[in-house]
Amino acid sequence: MSEVRTLVIDGKDVAATSDQTVLSAAEENGIHIPTLCHLEGLSDVGACRLCVVEVEGSPKLLAACATRVEEGMKVTTSSERLVAYRRNIVELFFVERNHICAVCVANNHCQLQDQARDLQLTHFELPPLHPELTVDATHERFVLDQNRCILCTRCVRVCDEIEGAHTWDIQGRGANARLVCDLGTPWGSSTTCTSCGKCVQVCPTGALFEKGRTVAEAKSRRPYLPYLVKAKRQGS
Amino acid sequence: MRSGKPKLATIWLDGCSGCHMSFLDMDERLLDLADRVELVYGCLVDTKEFPEGVDITLVEGAVSTEDDLRKIRQVRQRTRTLVSLGDCAVTSNVPGMRNPFGPRPALDRAYLENATSRQQVPTEVVPALLAESLPVHAWVPVDVFITGCPPSADRILEVVLGLLDGRVAEAAKVSRFG
Amino acid sequence: MSTDGPDGSAPVRHGRQPEPLIPDGPARASANVCQAAGCLSMGSDQLFETLRAAVLARGLHDVAVRRVGCLGLCAAGPLVEVPEQGRLFERVHPGEPKRTEDLVSSLAGETVAGRSVAADPFFSHQVKVVLERCGTVDPERLEDYVATGGYEGLSKALTSMTPEEVIAEVVRSGLRGRGGAGYPTGLMWRTVAKAEAPEGKYVVCNADEGDPGAFMDRSVLESCPQQVLEGMAIAGYAVGAHRGYVYVRAEYPLAVKRLSSAIRQAERDGHLGPEIAGTRFNFQVEVRIGAGAFVCGEETALIASIQGGRGTPKPRPPYPASSGLWGCPTLINNVETFANIPSVISRGGDWLNTIGTERSKGTKVFALTGAVTNTGLIEVPMGLTLRQIVFEIGGGLAEGRKFKAVQTGGPSGGCIPESLLDMAVDYETLAAAGSIMGSGGMIVMDDRTCMVDVAKFFMDFCREESCGKCLPCRVGTEEMYRLLDRVTTGMATRSHLAQLEDLAAMVRATSLCGLGQGAPNPVFSTLRYFRGEYLAHIDDHVCQAGVCPVPAGPPAGATEAALAGTATVSSGGRP
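^ Those are the sequences you sent over. The predicted structure of the assembly is below.
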C-alpha cells in the first residue's frame, strides 16, 4: 500500500507516493535527470550511475532510479559536482570500448551519443581502452556488436522480465564483463531465444540491431515497452 | 603575409578529407570568411612549408604515422590556437579502429590480402604507422574541439567566427559526435 | 582418551585422523600442536603424528598431545605450545628430528626449552576475547569447547534473558561490526529484531574474507568454529531468526571442513537444531561456499550469491536489515563480530565495554604481515598504538630494515606513515588518517617498498575484482591502474597525476558499492603521505625504493603529450 510522501527536489516541493523512486517523482514534476540503464517498464539496477543525485543527510550519492522517495527528503539533481561526474561517466563509457559514432548503426539515434551532446562533451582526455571484441551475426535477423555494448543490461532485463526467456546475461567481471547468450553459445544457435526482438528495441546504443537495415531505418522503438508491461499484467 | 588579418591554416593528417569538404560546403560564405582571414597553408594553398606565426590551424585527421606526428608537433609550435576538426582529430574515430589489433594486420589487409598485383608492404616513401592511431590531443595540447563526422559547414563557420570574435567557450554548445 | 594400540604405530585408520592423546588424569605437560593453515602447510599434521608416536613410545602416560587452532606466531611455524610450562616451541619441522627430540624431552620434564610465553611482548600485549580459545581447544572437538565455557552464553540467553535483553547487552558492550565499517552491532540487531517479517528472518555470517594479507576470519573458523556458531545462534534468538548461513570462500577448504564438522557436532549435542538447551528455540545453520569473488564480501552481493545468483551488489537502501535474503530481514555480521558475542553474553556487555577506547570498544584481531619480524595473528585491545603493534608485538622490522608505512584495511584502506605511528588504533583515528580499520589486515612495509607500486598493486586487485556492474568501478579502476602504470614506468606527466586524482574522486563518489567507493583509497592515502614519491617518478624518473622500471632521463614527449593517453612512439607498422 502506497502512502503520500512530500519531499523537495531542486528546491521544488513535490508530492509522491511511497512506492515511487526519486527519478519518477522528479520526472513527474518536469525535472530531468539523465539516465542510461533505466527504462520505464523494467526493474532498476542503478548500474550506469548517470542518475546519481545528492540527498541531504546522506554522505553518499544515490542513484535516483533505485532510491525510493522518503518523507522530508531534500534532493539536488544537478549541482556542479554532479554535472562534472556525469561528464566523467559518459567519457568513461566512450573510452571503454570502440564507440565510433560515424560508422555505428545507431548514429543519430543513440542514447549514449545524446548524453555526450547534452553534457556538452567535446573530447575525451582519458586513454581509450580499445579491447578487441567480437561481433555475433549468427542470428538470422539480429546482430550483437560487443564493441558498442555499455552493459546497461536492459536487454537482459527485458528478456527475463517481459519475454520470460532469459536468453541474455552477463559473464566475466570487471573490464572483462560481456553480454552473453545462453551459456556462451552463438546467438544463432540459442535454444531459448524466441527472436522476439525486444532486446534490439531497448538497446540504447548500436550493440543490438536488426540486419539488413540502413542506419536511417535502424531506429529502435524503446517507448513501446510500457504497453507490453501493461499487456503482460492484464494477461496474467 | 602583408595584410594584418589573422592567419588561418588547415592541415590534413589521417582522415578522409571529408572535414575539408565540409569546410568548402560553406559555399558563398567562404568569401565572407576570406575577408576576415588570410589562408596561409592547407590543401587549397600552394605552400610547401608550414609557416610561422599562424593564428588558427584546423587539423583534420588522427595522428597515425610518424609523419603525422612530425607534422603536428611542428604545427603546434607555429600555431596560436589549434583546433581539432572532426571526429578523427578529436577521438581518432575510424583510423582508431585498428588499435585493438595493431598496425601489422591493417597493413597486411591493405597491401597483401586486398592487393591484386605486386603484393608487398611498402617500406619506402610511405611513412611508418605508429603503434596506435590517436587523437591529436594525445600528442599536443589542443585548444578547441569541433566534433562531427564531418562537422557541418555551419558548425565549422560558427566556431571559426567565434574564435575570430574571441568566443572560444561557444564551441562546446554545438558539439555532437558522429 | 586414546584408543590406539600401545605402540602408537597406526596413525591413520580408514581415513580418520589419529585421536589426540589425553591422559585420564590432569596432564603434567601438553603438546598443543597448531593445526591451522599456516602451520599445516609446514607439515604440522605430520608433526602431530610424530609427536604422538614419540610420546607413546616413551610411555609418557601423563603427557597430552593435542591438536589446537592457531597459536598466533605464524612466522615461526610449525608451532607447539606447552602451556603447563609456558613455553612455545618454534619451527618444529617434522623433517628435523632434533627439534622434535628437544620438545619430547621437555615434555618428559628432562629439560626446559622453547620460547617463554609470559615475558614475550608478542603475547603479553595481547588481550584475547575472539581468540580466547584459539590455540587451546581442538577445533574439531565440541567437548573441548564446552569444557572451556562454550555454549554457556547461548544457554544463558535462552534460559534467563529475553531477546530484547540480549540486544541490550550487545548495545551495552559497545561492540561495532568487525567486518570493517564499524556499524554498532547492537543497533543493527535491534533494527532486524524490529523489522516485520511474515516470511521469517535470517542470520548470515560473512566469512568471505578476501583482503590481500588478511587471515583473521580463516584462523577463527579453523581454530574455534563453535564460538562463531554460538554467536550466530544467540543473534538468531535476539532478532527472531531460525535459519543462519555462513558464507565462506571456497579458498578456505579447511575452514569449511571444520565449520561443517562443528555444525554436525553442535546439532548432535543440541546446541543447534530444534529445542536448543531444552527451550522452544530452534536454529539451523548451513554453510554456503563462495565461488572466488571478492565483491561477494559486500553484503548485497553476498545475498545474491547465497540465493544462487550472480554475485553483484545492489543499491542500498533498502538495507539487508529490512530486505535481505529472499527479501526477508537479514542480519549480516562478520566472523569476528559473532565470535565476540558469546563472551558479551556470558560475561556481560559491561565487561567488553571496559576494554578499548571511548568510541571503539573491545579488541581487534589483526593479521600482522609484511616486513615485520613476528608475522602472525594477534588480538589487541582497541587503542593500542601502531608503534606498539609493529615494534613490540611485531618485534620491529625484519632484517633490521627501516620502517616506511603500514597498510590497513585492504584494498579499501590506506597506508599510514611513520609520523602517525603513535596513533591509538580505533575506527575513528584510522579513518581520520585516511585509512580504515577494515577487517584487520595489517601489512608492514619497509624502505624497499615503493608507495606508487603499492597503490598500483591494490588498484590491480580492485580492477580484477570489480564485478563490472557499475561503470565507475568497472572502467574507472582500469583507467586508474593504467595511469598508475604510467607513473611507475616513467611515462606520466603531472597532468596524468591530476587526471588520476580527478578520476579517483569521481570513482569514490559515484560507484555503486563499497568496492568501487573504496578502490581509490590506496591512491588517496599514498598521495597524501608520499606525494613526493609520485613526483620523483614523474619529474625525475626516480623510484626511490628501486622497485619501478622507470627509464633514466626525462620522459620522451613528456612536455608535449600534456593530455596524452596511450601515446607511445613506436614504428610498429614497419615490416
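The mean pLDDT of chain A is 92. Chain A is about 25% helix and 15% strand.

Shout if you want it in another format.
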